[in-house]
Amino acid sequence: MTTVAVVGAGAVGGVVAARLAAAGHVRVTACVRSPLGGIRVDRPDGTAESLPVDEASDPGQASTADWVVLATKAHQTAGAARWLERLCGPGTRVAVLQNGVEHVERVSPLVGEARILPAVVEISAEPLGRGHIRLFGPPRIVVPESEDGNAFAALCKDTGIIVEQTDDFLTAAWTKLCLNVANGAITAVTTRRMPVFTNPRVARLGRALVEEARLVGSSLGARLPDDLADQVIERLLAMPAESGSSMLWDRLAGRPLEFDARNGAVVRAGARVGVPTPHNDTVTALLEAISEVGERAS
Ligand SMILES: NC(=O)c1ccc[n+]([C@@H]2O[C@H](COP(=O)([O-])OP(=O)(O)OC[C@H]3O[C@@H](n4cnc5c(N)ncnc54)[C@H](OP(=O)(O)O)[C@@H]3O)[C@@H](O)[C@H]2O)c1
């Protein structure tokens, strides 16, 4: 039976582990720092599913898996190095379910000869407690059109996770980053959910963050529409009032924030291609300062 190790069984990883376990055609192990005691997912329609999932807590005891689903926050990747070292062999595929555009650069130093499949995660989920997740919509994951992408789609067959493949992953990743630079940053700085964007000044700041990211992504070859900033703000305003962002959940819980893989990545790439990114630079500084408090506490 195909073996799948989920490293980072939080909101996203927990949903994926639960859906894979429910489908029953693979052996799933959640690689955790402390026990989950099963996974409960509260679905958007008000129903819930609770599933037992095998757990492992000692990387030293782990052996090579066919698939590793890496769904820690981007800044927690290096901290999961021991799991990755033990779980990855030459035949392992590592699906990187993380936000940002630097999946391969971040993960490749940690996985030896394993193959990396970057993913754009379209799973809106809030961690409510250990192993308890609130899902806001249907889980969707976008991966490159490739042999590994096909294999991931086959892995997720009959799980309820929609896997889409694209021949332009660069555009898919930058499109998602353009959303994240506004929603993650602004909800986390203000500690407010999506209705924060009804404030016209906040919406203007959101547009400026997206526009900088759009210009940087476009310089790198991503095909991003001219009105993307307006589209993003409209999309955020149309979201349910209770929805937020994973960076907001971390801020509310006093944890370090995933700002560097998002606004920080825009600033880094902007410097490389010569596109100014003053708004993203400013919110990166604010988020870094907020995140330092979480780092001291954790
Ligand atoms: N949540 C969303 O709605 C959403 C939507 C789209 C994309 N994303 C992206 O998906 C990725 C995952 O986000 P998330 O919201 O699922 O994060 P999360 O709920 O914070 O989950 C991260 C998990 O990683 C675990 N972890 C961290 N370091 C670890 C280590 N060294 N060994 C084992 N486990 C470790 C954490 O365990 P502990 O419990 O022990 O801390 C936690 O369970 C991020 O890149 C995020 O931006 C999230």
Fold and architecture overview:
The protein is α/β, with parallel strands linked by helices and 298 residues long. The chain has ten helices and twelve strands. The radius of gyration is 18 Å and the shape is globular. NADP nicotinamide-adenine-dinucleotide phosphate (NAP) binds at residues 7-13, 31-34, 71-74, 76, 79-80, 83, 97-99, 121, 123-125, 127, 246, 258.
Along the chain, the helix and strand elements come as EHEEEEEHEHEEEEHEHHHHHH
Question: Structural class given helices, strands, pairing?
Answer: alpha/beta
What portion of the residues fall into strands of 2 or more residues? 15-25%
Tally the structural domains: 2
Strand order within the widest sheet?
5-2-1-6-7-8-11-12
CATH class of the largest domain: Alpha Beta
Bound molecules: NADP nicotinamide-adenine-dinucleotide phosphate
**Could you say what the CATH topology of the largest domain is called?**
Rossmann fold
Counted by DSSP, the helix tally is 10
Q: Say which CATH homologous superfamily of the largest domain is assigned.
A: NAD(P)-binding Rossmann-like Domain
Helix content: 40-55%
Largest sheet: 8 strands, mixed
Short recap of the structure:
The chain has two domains: about 5-165, 3-Layer(aba) Sandwich (Rossmann fold); about 170-295, N-(1-d-carboxylethyl)-l-norvaline Dehydrogenase, domain 2.
Keywords:
single chain, 298 residues, alpha/beta, Rossmann fold, N-(1-d-carboxylethyl)-l-norvaline Dehydrogenase, domain 2, four-stranded mixed sheet, 42% helix, binds NADP nicotinamide-adenine-dinucleotide phosphate
